[in-house]
């Protein structure tokens, strides 16, 4: 009795034992590796066109993202305040 037929729907199912889905698969999850310092907080900032243009110029020059430039700026200001 390896084949089951659903009388209500025109589908044929094949019975493959009593293992649960994914049971034979590895226990490791696929996907992006976990970060040591996850960036889970999101902030929104209003800027004018001039600041946005400066931000984009920085991203092009440094070959990085807007978020990275903003984080570096915050670190720089914080370090200056600690002096």
UniProtKB/TrEMBL annotation:
Protein name: CopG family transcriptional regulator
Organism (species): Paenibacillus rhizoplanae
